Amino acid sequence: MRLPFQLSIALLLLALPLLAQAKPAYITDTFKVTMRSGESSTHRILRMLNSGDQVDLLSTDSESGYSKIRTASGLEGYVLSRQLMNQPSARNQLKTLQQRVHELESAPAELSGKLARLQQQHDSLQQEHKALQQTKNQLNQELQSIQRTASNAIRISNERNDLRKQVADLTRNVADLRQQNRDLSNESNRDWFLIGAAVVIAGILIGLLLPHLRFQRRRNNWGAL
Predict the structure, then answer these.
(1) Of 58, 55, 61, the residue nearest 33 (C-alpha)
(2) Pick from 77, 100, 87: which is nearest to 54 by CA?
(3) Residue 38 sits in which domain range?
(4) What is the CATH number of the domain that holds 76?
(5) Residue 68, Ramachandran bin (φ over 0: left; ψ between -120 and 50: alpha; else beta)
(6) How many domains does the chain have?
(7) Beta bridge pairs of residue 59
(8) Closest by CA position to 50, among listed 10, 79, 14
(9) What is the pTM of this model?
(10) Whose CA is closest to 70, among 97, 42, 35?
(11) What backbone torsions phi and psi does residue 139 show, to the nearest 5 degrees?
(12) What is the Cα–Cα distance from 29 to 90, expressed in whole angstroms?
């Protein structure tokens, strides 16, 4: 059955104040859960647990409606089984999601910071590389200088060895010449000795023959007379 148009307008006008007074609301899942020493409400309360706390489920009694649990600190007790869930509470899930969203929102800034730090490290490594390259070039120059010095030292050593050989050869030659000189000197002395001896002998012979020659000449002169 369709309502007349005027009646529909009237009902809508009456409902407008009610719609204006309504506000969105949410049922919170935050509440305290009593943890007792036994499986009844008469047992002593050990601790008040917050909604969303994670516990270890040890056993469940369907008759009493209680479950035995152990907290993160190791305390064991009993809570109503209907107050346990197989997954975190909606509040904790929302908190986790909000934290994840915050992490995702802050990720670009963190990445920018990391990128800036990496850029600084890159620049620092570039400077260190340049410094190491300069040090390498300097060491190469020093190595070349040392190699040239070593080459000169080897050449000088070879030249010194050659000079030593030449000096040794000259020393042997001088010794040979001295020996030859001594030999020649000895031969010369011997020759002069022989000459002197011959002169002495000749003088003696002349001294012996000269009177005889004079006497012979006198005899010849006497014979001629």
Answers:
(1) 55
(2) 87
(3) 32-87
(4) 2.30.30.40
(5) beta
(6) 1
(7) 68
(8) 79
(9) 0.33
(10) 35
(11) -65, -35
(12) 7
Asked if residue 57 belongs to a domain, the reply is: yes
CA distance 161 to 172: 16
Query: Mind listing the pLDDT tens digit of every residue in the chain (225 residues)?
Result: 444 555 555 555 555 554 444 444 333 355 678 899 999 989 999 988 887 788 888 988 989 999 898 988 999 999 888 888 777 666 666 667 777 777 777 777 777 777 788 888 888 888 888 888 888 888 888 888 887 877 777 878 788 888 888 888 878 877 777 777 777 767 666 667 777 777 777 777 776 666 666 656 665 665 555
Number of H-type helices and E-type strands within the chain: 2, 5
Please give the structure tokens belonging to residue 166.
């030449």
Asked if the structure places residue 138 within a domain, the reply is no
- In terms of Cβ atoms closer than 10 Å to its own Cβ (0-12, 13-18, 19+), residue 79 is buried
Please name which of 39, 33, 86, 91 lies closest in space to residue 66, comparing C-alpha atoms.
Answer: 39
Q: Up-side HSE of residue 193: CA atoms within 13 Å toward CB? A: 6
Q: Tell me if 58 is assigned to some domain.
A: yes
Tokens of 143: 């190595």
Q: Is residue 131 part of a domain?
A: no
Beta strands per DSSP E along the chain = 32-36, 45-50, 56-61, 66-70, 76-80
